[in-house]
């Protein structure tokens, strides 16, 4: 379902099947829809068998990096006598991304069930779900669902009568984008300043409270019950050609399309069809100018690149960008790319945690140069300077926030030079769109 | 080479280091300085300044040398074009919001930002047309000012207060380029060791109120010394300008004080610059004191010692060196009827997380040295026995009124004094002596560690070390005696330190017990 629009026949609803059904939010409603069968089954499985099932499904991280989920789970030590933790990253703050929000709003029990299964697989008694602070409604719904799950005995010291302890704790963020970075998120849960940590040590060795920890995105965990229910083989066949990218992916589409919303596609779906068919194409009289396919941190794509791009991890990389979080921003010919890129840079400058020099100063400087260009006060050397700064902001810092600021700048200057030239030369600037 | 060692090549220099060593430390061994800001050997490394990024062959990107452990066979380039360009960029980023106020900045001349920019930075800015970030100076604590404009957010101060002092009052506030070091609104930076943040700050952002605008770094002479404040024996550097002490700073010694000194020790230097000094030997003539030359004074001292058949008492202050105490006791010789050191007491103030490092209760630097040399009497007992003492040798000790009254009962007094004490009217000779910043000597700290200090300023007038005057008087006592002519000889002649020389002590010091076990 291209929520809030009616389901499109070319979608593959797995996670989004019950989007829009308020009854699915309740424990009873969720059980009616086949909920918690997977967890009951997982409780009878050996942890390694759960991990192997997820490995075989080909499920990859839906938060942005696309790391193989089963592989990540298998990094957790076994029989080390230490408490293990699962963190669920629900700090969905990437501009243009709003798919986890819908999962938590409509199917909170899918997430809880996914967490519980993952906890069994990794012998983690406690899971922290770190929810973005601004998500007040999703938080309220999640809070009710967790309370219901405890009341029903699904969670707690004797989960579903198994004798195993499964605890799920909700933790609200306080508004910092950087807390969506996995190690910053752990610092934040611990009550520290949300600064990303240096790796190594990796979370599977020393994560939350210094203990072995795995962190997964909401969408990744929510997909796990379906894999346990219907089998890894079924999931791995949800694939349109590239065996490395299996399953379904929620794509939150926003911007200048007729029907913005959250669409669930099988990986490998043509990006062009997603925009022109599922989303109804551009507004009347407008043409496609640019697409940011995976949240604001990834390089911008041109219409030519979109033309034959398949929407999966490798397909978008082949076109010079990334699937990322699946937060797609579509921009038509009314868009001033310089302005849009400045807005993105300003966002990163505002959200830089201030640890690394290159990021702290580079994001702010980049923003100021872009503002200067927009004010028609640019110097001829400004584009070269921007590219040079971007170069020094890429691969130089603890986390990738600084890289994320540089990506749209570099791809923007490279691919949409005309928009920049319009400000540098005498020609009038293109009209500013009201995105 | 054992299994625990790995071989790496850094800028062409092969070195072998223990497994787990960070590249930045291995580079030191190879004689290569990796420029850095956030890294400090005494603190955990956060790898945030990005200044120490180095090229490691086969690594996909530049690696932070402060948190990247060496691997066997690794080839590291600190001076490669890629690494230099990365540092140049970091320096440019650091400078865009850094004021060019070096001419009025206390740190200038000992500023790591200044140094590395001169070395590898750009000659001009590309951050033109923008105002630099501004925030007013903040008063953090008794001796610390924070100048946010100069801050490069290396967070050494935050980490020192958190992980070393255990009093986490500082933290980074706000985000992005608006970030600054903030202090808890309810608190002050008044931990007894807080002053170390000024030394740790690589730029002029955290500055000492006491040192503010007092001297330029390049005008300072630096002398290795030992803090005379308590029995801990922290290693310090005495900074002087034109023979005036303007600042005391810690001198790293991992066995004693790591990289730190306490604020009490740091602040206690004004007495070193006192102008009201005894500058010539004085001999009492009725109720007046008459200046004389050294020969007259030394003859008089020798005569007084010879006449003191009823016994000699030695009273010393806690800053008297081993050389001085040893030679006073030698002068007293058989007639020694008691020797005591006056030990002022104060609050013990541990640094926090470092074991065996504290401002000690006993505020006498050479208490242990005195004990080793045989100065074992209780001060109070000794004072009560002064009545009728034939001769009392008072060696630069601050006496209270009770002490003065007790001293009045002694028959003869020789006062070895750096500053005159008009209350001691009964002294036969007032001997002009140097203070510990004007002489060479050895202190023994509470752990039995003997440590040397050097003269940092010139002595006023005719002042000489106590050991010199005592030894000269001793030489006059009997034919065939030869007084030492240098501090090293004076030390070498002390039985308590037999077999230990200045050369053995070096500037790191050594414990006698350690030496004994090393030679057996």
- Major sheet of chain A: order of its strands? 3-2-1-4
Class based on secondary structure composition and strand pairing of chain B? alpha+beta
- As a whole number of angstroms, the C-alpha radius of gyration of chain A is 22 Å
Low-confidence stretches of chain A: none
Number of helices of chain B: 15
The secondary structure category of chain A is alpha/beta
Mean pLDDT of chain B: 95
Backbone shape of chain A: globular
Account of the protein in words:
- The complex is a heterodimer of chains A (435) and B (520).
- In chain A, strand 5 and strand 6 (261-266) form a beta hairpin.
- Chain A contains 18 helices and 10 strands.
- The longest helix of chain A is centred in the C-terminal third of the chain and has 18 residues, at 357-374.
- Chain A is globular.
- The mean pLDDT of chain A is 95.
- Chain A has helices spanning 27-32, 37-42, 47-57, 69-74, 99-106, 108-122, 136-151, 182-189, 218-230, 232-237, 271-278, 303-307, 313-318, 337-351, 357-374, 382-392, 401-415, 417-424, and strands at 85-90, 126-131, 167-172, 213-217, 248-255, 261-266, 269-270, 288-292, 310-311, 327-332.
- With 435 residues, chain A is of the alpha/beta class.
- In chain A, the strands form 3 sheets. Chain A has a 4-stranded parallel beta sheet, with helices on both faces. Chain A has a 4-stranded mixed beta sheet with strand order 6-5-10-8, with helices on one face. A two-stranded antiparallel sheet of chain A has the order 7-9.
- Chain B has 15 helices and 25 strands.
- In chain B, helix 2 packs across helix 3 (112-120), helix 7 (294-307) crosses helix 12 and helix 8 runs parallel beside helix 12.
- The interface between A and B is medium-sized, with 29 and 33 residues.
